[in-house]
């Protein structure tokens, strides 16, 4: 009887630990992306955008991670609500413009493997700065263009429930969460400090000018 109670106690502890870890990971995932709720034409859309493989580091493979949903009317900003449905086929409709400083680049989306309603646009960040992801295209006859900006400073996730008229046919009704900007990898270099590709190019240019 004593052994049985001991085993039951261990099982309860294990279950509680799993639940706490799952809750923490869910919390981290929620705030690693930013959700924006739109009305486009007469239809609501929930778009969730962040970066692949967060946290992201300079010269590492990452990309724009985009998920599109038809939201649950009872909880429209929750991508995991019971009535939420993924929206497929947007890789043929929307593109993403990357912007870092005065540099811009347009990428196509590819559907994520076995993940309906999710799309990826891969790139390699080369400098430490603020990155903007601007999604644009035509959705059901309405021109759409909206921007998601990474957050360089850790802090409370952004929350904004104000109504913003984006264009004649597009209204943003809510914005929640944030995602991080690329980080340097100098502290991870071993046995020598890590030099980014951009730093190597600069040093080569300096040698050439000498």
Describe the model:
It is a single chain. Residues 15-31 have low confidence and may be disordered. The longest helix is centred in the N-terminal third of the chain and has 29 residues, at 2-30. Strands 1, 2, 3, 4, 7, 8, 11, 12 and 13 form a nine-stranded antiparallel sheet that branches. The protein is α+β, with helices and mostly antiparallel strands. 20% of the residues lie in helices and 38% in strands. It folds into two domains: 1-29; 31-204.
Order of helices and strands: HEEEEEEEEEEEEEH
Number of strands: 13
The percentage helix is: 10-25%
Strand content: 35-45%
Largest sheet: 9 strands, antiparallel
| CA radius of gyration | 21 Å
- Whole-number tally of structural domains: 2
Task: Note the overall shape.
Answer: elongated
Give the uncertain stretches in residue-range form.
Answer: 15-31
Instruction: Measure the end-to-end span.
Output: 82 Å
Number of helices: 2
What is the mean predicted local confidence, pLDDT? 83
Name a few traits of the molecule.
single chain; 210 residues; alpha+beta; 9-stranded antiparallel beta sheet; 4-stranded antiparallel beta sheet; 13 strands; 20% helix; elongated
Write the SSE topology.
Layout: H1 2-30, E1 33-40, E2 43-51, E3 62-70, E4 85-86, E5 94-100, E6 103-108, E7 110-111, E8 118-123, E9 131-139, E10 142-149, E11 159-160, E12 164-167, E13 170-177, H2 197-209
Antiparallel strand pairs: 1-2, 1-13, 2-3, 3-4, 3-8, 5-6, 5-9, 7-8, 9-10, 11-13, 12-13
């Amino acid at each position: 009887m004593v052994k049985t109670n001991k085993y039951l106690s261990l099982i309860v502890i294990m279950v509680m630990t799993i639940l706490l870890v799952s809750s923490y990971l869910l919390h981290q995932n929620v705030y690693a992306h930013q959700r924006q709720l739109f009305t486009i034409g007469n239809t609501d859309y929930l778009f969730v955008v962040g970066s692949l493989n967060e946290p992201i580091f300079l010269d590492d493979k990452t990309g724009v991670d985009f998920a599109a949903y038809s939201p649950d009317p009872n909880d429209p900003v929750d991508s995991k609500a019971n009535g939420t449905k993924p929206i497929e086929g947007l890789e043929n409709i929307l593109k993403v413009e990357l912007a870092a400083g005065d540099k811009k680049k347009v990428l196509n989306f590819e559907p994520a493997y076995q993940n309906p309603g999710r799309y990826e646009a891969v790139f390699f960040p080369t400098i430490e700065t603020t990155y903007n992801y601007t999604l644009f295209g035509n959705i059901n006859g309405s021109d759409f263009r909206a921007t998601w900006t990474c957050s360089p400073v850790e802090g409370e996730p952004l929350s904004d429930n104000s109504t913003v008229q984006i264009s004649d046919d597009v209204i943003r009704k809510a914005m929640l969460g944030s995602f991080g900007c690329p980080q340097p990898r100098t502290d991870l270099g071993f046995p020598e400090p890590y030099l980014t590709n951009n730093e190597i190019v600069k040093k080569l240019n300096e040698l050439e000018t000498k």
